[in-house]
Amino acid sequence: MGGTKGLENYLDSPIDILISYYGLSKISKPPFCQDLFLDSGAFSAYKKKEVLDPVEYAKFIKQYQKDIFIYAGLDVIGDPITTWKNQKVLESMELNPLPCFHYKEPYKWLRRYVKKYDFIAIGGGAIISQDKTQLYQYLDECWNIIFSINPNLKVHGFGLQNEKLMKRYPWYSVDASSVHLIARFGGIYTPWGSVKINPDVAPKDLAWATPGRLNIVKDWVNFQSLGFSFEEAQEGTTEGTLKRCVISIKYFSKEFTNFKCLRQGRIGFFNK
Questions:
Q1: Which pLDDT band, with edges at 50, 70 and 90, does 70 fall under?
Q2: In angstroms, rounded to a whole number, what is the distance separating the alpha carbons of residues 196 and 191?
Q3: Cα separation of 164 and 28, whole Å?
Q4: 201 lies in which domain range?
Q5: Which of 63, 81, 171, 201 is the most buried (most CB within 10 A)?
Q6: Local structure of residue 90 (DSSP, 8 states)
Q7: Helix ranges restricted to H, the chain
């Protein structure tokens, strides 16, 4: 969530955001947030080998429910049985969390969710993102099951902001940290891919920027009438980072016209 304070100063309208429950003591909805998606933080807990308490998670949701638009179930990556038990605990406390299916879990669990719910989440993209063939195979199988049982199902893709994968399947929503991360390290998303524009980055990251290419990207940024110039977005300051975030948000918003922009910290998309 850090590093996005003041984003509202550069956006035409509020965006939807996703935040993680893991390590969160309270929810303070930022002024640029319209609808808020609360993730359980299962991936962070998984990496640190920690176990989250479903009852405490439920209490947290209830405490801040007026600020939360959607909330995920308390999934345990690699343990679909406990994930299902947590889902039932939350439901017994009169909550309606999105059930979550993860990579390498038996597909019988996905079939159960597809049959029982009208909105689910699929995870695992972040774990196998480096192996594109494996990722495509996994998501193809997931969507084959979805299409065969409930083709109208709404599906959220966790940790997913690969343009090809976003277009390959009919996601209801996706999220990822890449827009904010690339902005922090001097980059933006463009129709020609992601490029670094802060002149202080490593020379190898500026190898793309021949005079002709640089002028094309510069003209493209300035044509959007963002309220700031390409040169301002190049700055290695907090304001420069925010401006680079806005450029990428605007790009994805236009590229995926059926989606509504989602998210601070991990900016993604949410199609309502």
A1: very high
A2: 14
A3: 34
A4: 187-233
A5: 171
A6: H
A7: 42-47, 54-63, 80-92, 107-116, 132-149, 163-168, 178-184, 211-223, 230-233, 238-255
